[in-house]
Structure formats: C-alpha cells, structure tokens
C-alpha cells in the first residue's frame, strides 16, 4: 500500500475511529471462512438466537481452531502494519450473524479498560477487525458508526453506559434509544472480503437485516500497541485463556500474536463504562 494511502487510513482511524481496507480476504479464504461459520451457526439451538435477538449470534472463534488461520492471516497483519501496528497481539473473536428478517444491533462500545488514563488518549488500545462474508448495506445490516465517539462524548453514551446487557441482546425493549437512529451516525457498507478496522471505544451498531439471507461478520480483537500499554492492562491481557484445542496454534502461528507479561502489576479491573474524562 502506498505510504500516502496508509497515512490517510491511519489518520481516519484516529479521527473517525474506523477505516476500511478493501478485498483483504482472498476468494478461497473467504469461502473457507463462510463454510466454517455456517457450520457453527447451523449447530446453534433456537434459544441462542432468541437470547441474541439484537446481536444475531455471538459464537466464540475458539469453537473452531480453523480461525487461528484467520487470526494470523498475512494480508490482515499487513493491513495493521500499514497503519503502523507491526507488533500487535490478539485476544479473542466472535462469529456474529444476523439471521434473515432480524432487527437492528444496539449502539455500544467495547473497551474495558476505562480506569486507566491511556483510555482517553488518541492511540487505540484495542481494535476490531471485522470481515463481512457477504456484500453488506443498509438493507441487510451494515455497520453503523458515530464517527469520533471513541474520543468525544456523545448523547448516546448516556443511554448505553453498560454494553451488551442481557436486556439489550434480547431486545427486551424495542423502543430503547440504543436501537434508534443517532445524531451524526454514518453507514459503513462493504463488499464481501473487505476488512473494517475500528477503535474498540467507538460507538457502533448495525442496521437490521431485512433480506432473506443471513449476514455474517467475523469480529477479531487485536491489541495494536501492546508493548506500549501500562503494565496492569498487559497483565489482564496476558492471562486471557486459550482452549486446549488451540494449544498447538498458540505455539505455532499465534505465538507472535500472544500477549506475554512478566512484570508485577496487578491486572486492571474490567470496566466497560467511559468516565467523565471522555471529552
């Protein structure tokens, strides 16, 4: 990628909280991800989708070791490197699929380390890498984002101070502000195989899927500047468990992406609620 284009994407990530890299998943890899994701989705009981009415599904990538290949996928790591993140670590990920004729995803942000002052500085502490497996627009549930909300307080923060509650996931109250249009929101339509990289602090949601086809996104969480983070955040990330089925992957292709911390800091407390220091 040309240096000027990479700089523009980095600037957009810092300013708006997200950017898009086109056609990152090669056609053969895209088909493999679709196959594994569909198998996992087809195996879920109806109760899973009832509990995740707004989200659609929330299946850990740890449920299939195939996803280790996607976590360490060279074109994605190159995209991160183009942004200046050439020493990332990885923590987790999910298969998130909105069934046909399903409602909107609620507004939320996903950062959990708000007790540390670094959370209020421009560089991202954690980023999501989202791979949409079908062409996605307003009709079938594309991403919605409130640009700049990773650094600036927005009225929606007052309504979703706690993310991913059971009530929001199950859509207990369809009239809740978390499902409604928000001032300043933008759509982020993409083509299958595109990669959206976003700051975990960004307020984001998704339109409902009005189509007759499932709309699946694979969301993977990376720590782009792990080596620069405070010890207590490193300590929290380094204790993140891996299933036994991922042991060999962690020793192999995931080893460079595995958080290691040998200091003495106590892990930071999990806190998903932004403080008033957010401007």
Top keywords for this entry?
279 residues, 24% helix, alpha+beta, six-stranded antiparallel beta sheet, 8 helices
Structure description:
It is a single chain. By secondary structure, this protein is of the alpha+beta class. It has a single domain (3-257), classed as q2cbj1_9rhob like domain (Jelly Rolls, Sandwich), CATH 2.60.120.620. The chain has 8 helices and 10 strands. Strands 1-8-5-10-3-2 form a 6-stranded antiparallel sheet. The protein has a 4-stranded antiparallel sheet with strand order 4-9-6-7, with no helix packed on it. The longest helix is centred in the N-terminal third of the chain and has 16 residues, at 27-42. The chain is globular, with a radius of gyration of 18 Å. The mean pLDDT is 94.
Please tell me the overall pLDDT: 94
Query: Biggest sheet: strands, sense, closure?
Result: 6 strands, antiparallel
CATH architecture: Sandwich
Looking at the structure, the CATH topology is Jelly Rolls
Euclidean distance between termini CA atoms:
34 Å
Task: Please write out the topology.
Elements: H1 3-16, E1 18-21, H2 27-42, H3 46-51, E2 59-60, H4 67-71, H5 74-82, E3 89-98, E4 105-108, E5 127-132, E6 143-146, H6 166-169, E7 185-188, E8 195-199, E9 204-206, E10 215-223, H7 231-238, H8 247-251
Antiparallel strand pairs: 1-8, 2-3, 3-10, 4-9, 5-8, 5-10, 6-7, 6-9
């Amino acid at each position: 990628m040309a240096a000027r284009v990479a700089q523009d994407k980095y600037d957009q990530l810092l300013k708006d909280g997200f950017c898009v890299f086109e056609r990152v998943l090669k056609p053969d890899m895209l088909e493999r991800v679709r196959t594994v994701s569909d198998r996992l989705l087809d195996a879920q009981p109806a109760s899973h989708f009832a509990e995740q009415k707004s989200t659609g599904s929330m299946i850990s990538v740890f449920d299939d070791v195939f996803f280790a290949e996607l976590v360490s996928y060279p074109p994605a790591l190159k995209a991160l490197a183009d942004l200046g993140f050439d020493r990332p670590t990885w923590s987790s990920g999910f298969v998130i699929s909105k069934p046909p004729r399903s409602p909107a995803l609620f507004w939320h942000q996903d950062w959990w380390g708000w007790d540390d002052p670094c959370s209020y500085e421009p560089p991202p502490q954690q980023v999501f890498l989202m791979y949409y497996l079908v062409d996605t627009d307003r009709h079938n549930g594309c991403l919605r984002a409130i640009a700049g909300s990773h650094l600036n307080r927005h009225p929606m923060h007052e309504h979703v101070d706690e993310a991913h509650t059971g009530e929001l996931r199950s859509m207990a109250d369809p009239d809740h502000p978390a499902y409604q249009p928000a001032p300043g929101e933008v759509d982020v339509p993409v083509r299958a195989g595109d990669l959206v990289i976003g700051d975990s602090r960004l307020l984001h949601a998704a339109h409902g899927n009005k189509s007759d086809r499932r709309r699946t996104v694979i969301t993977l969480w990376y720590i782009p500047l792990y080596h620069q983070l405070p010890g207590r955040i490193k300590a929290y990330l380094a204790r993140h468990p891996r299933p036994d089925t991922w042991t060999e992957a962690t020793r192999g292709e995931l080893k460079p992406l595995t958080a290691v911390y040998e200091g003495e800091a106590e892990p930071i407390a999990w806190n998903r609620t932004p403080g008033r220091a957010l401007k």
